[in-house]
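Sequence in, structure out. First:
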Amino acid sequence: MATGKDMKEKILRAALKLFRKKGYLGTSMTDIAVEVGLTKGGIYHYIAKKEDLLRELHDEMISAVVSRMNRMVEPEPDPGTKLENWIRSHASIMHDYLDEIRVFFTEMEHLDKANFRRMIQRRDAVHRTLSDIVAEGIQSGEFRKGIDPDIAAYLILGTLNWYYQWYRPNGDFSIEEIANMTIQIICHGIRTENTTHTE
């Protein structure tokens, strides 16, 4: 018999599936209840309202981003390696949380003002971390001068976040191969000519 925690996770997965298929506005709590074998009244034992599911899916994805960045990026001593690991980490998140990310970008506007603001703050914190890495690289001489760290961070994140539009797990290239191509393009463009780099 499923525990309350197990059922809550089952409801989250069902909501994700339906939000992807029908959109947030097109999905009702009844739809989600039917998907997991609950009555309309029964689902409210586990979740108060539909927006809570959207918020929890967004929280789950952003928490995974922060956790993986902290594990793969922060321990590295030099900004160039940090940037490469950032790209690999971000690409792996796009692979592992592809449906959550699609819902994040297409349905985020349906959060209430307080939760929307909180998500923007968490997203901005990720941007600042990447901007700081670029600034560190410019200061150390590893990255080119004349690059604005904030603009560079927006460009890098824009490239990586757009994966969700075209990346397919069963496509011709693995996520690791795509990450390596991205590293070649971004890191070759930002590094100074005399800086060693990963091939």
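Second:
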Amino acid sequence: MVEVGVEVEDVVEVEVVVEVEVVVEVGVEVEVGDMVGDVVEIGDEVGDMVGIKVGVVVEDVVEVVVEVGVEVTKRKEKIMFEKGKAYFIKTATDYFTGYCIEDGTDCLLDQAAWIADTGRFADALRTGEFSEIEPYPDGMLVRVHAGGVVSSCLWPHKLPRAQK
């Protein structure tokens, strides 16, 4: 882009191709004879860049009707947790293990345990051994809400069921 200062001194005939974008502002009324836009006259300085300002005189009022259609569709719920699979889940404050018993974005765990201390994290993931385990009683289900999940992974090891 070349920046130049231009002062209009003479009227010359040129062919100009202009792409026009029509913008309708809600609540603005235009009457016959109204001026819309800016007009460049002889002697006006056109600024730092070569450009054209277009002025339009309204010669006829036309009714504009805009129809907006909105289609509402139900968003399919993404399944984060699959029924019948064992998971290790990290929330903002806790770790859990357990079998997921229903498909969904939340995880409903059976044979759940709160992992109070993982010990060395990488070792725990590799071996399935934790430093401190607090299992929930048999038959007690634990729901981990998707909004609180920081990360999760499938758990390939035996689920911890003994307090440690």
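Remark: The first helix runs from residue 121 to 127.
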